[in-house]
Amino acid sequence: MNFAAIGLGSFGIKRARAIKESKLGKLSAIYDSNPDILQKASKELQVPSKDYKKILEDENIEVIAICTPNKFHKNIIIDALNANKHVFCEKPLARNLKEAEEIYNVSKKTKKKIQIGSNHRYFESVKYAKKLVDEGTIGEVLSFNGRIGHNGERLKNTWFWKKEISGGGTLLDNGCHLIDLSRYFMGNFETGNGLISNSYWKDIEVEDTACGMFTKKDGRTSTIFCSWRLLSGYFFFELNGSKGYINVDGRFDTHGGDKIFWSINNDKKFYEKDFSDIKPSSYNQEIDLFIKNLKENKNCSPSILDALEVMRMIDIVYSSK
Hints:
Layout: E1 2-6, H1 10-21, E2 26-31, H2 35-45, H3 52-57, E3 63-66, H4 73-82, E4 86-89, H5 97-110, E5 114-116, H6 124-134, E6 141-149, H7 163-166, H8 170-186, E7 191-197, E8 209-215, E9 221-227, E10 235-241, E11 244-249, E12 259-264, E13 270-274, H9 282-295, H10 304-319
Parallel strand pairs: 1-2, 1-3, 3-4, 4-5, 6-9
Antiparallel strand pairs: 6-10, 7-8, 8-9, 10-11, 11-12, 12-13
């Protein structure tokens, strides 16, 4: 399948590289509004740059991969859908729930597929945790409890700090990963509440700390905490089940591990697996499955409905008093 990548910043170049390395797809064109970034990316990737409008008009380009700042997601996604393209968009889907709903309504009319980037699902520890849950190893999952974050230094004075561009702070930046994973393991949540604050980065327009608690109809819960001042980042979560529990210690460059630990009730044994020696390939695995699902006309995961539900949960936190 022929792709065009739009937005070639630090994460955009990673997504573009994953597409180029895929045996299932081809990176046919790239675009960035910054000519210097575009020229550098074209040289690095050995892929021709192309005008935004011409990308949309090119009938040979079947998929648009979007990695721009959040402000531009909605318009580019809608342009791509109306141009008869499938879409892969870096998280979050949009700046807010209203924009997300607008995207969803257009997607229903065009019937093109949208997948939202959620590479954490492809960490080896997370994949193994999903396998254990699906096999019933810990029984019914009763609760999800996780935290995620980094020290915020790499985002200092960038567009992430500007609400008009980002839509929000740490919750949209990395908290959405935990929200997605909680739904991945437990399904939809009906109600919730939360809070946001600035514990360290005081003079910015968005939050540097957020937490949320969400509840299913049957009382099962998810609790998430995220921060741009989490020195021990990157992410950790625990699944408590009716028969046991699972702990996941997620991979990050400064933390040194991608591990999973689990135990079963009334079993004195303690199990663990360390995936630290496996080269990270979450971006590659994610794009390959996306292409495979497109070719086989299967539902993408996370889908536009998943992304909309994540935005609804984020809105719950931002709307809490």
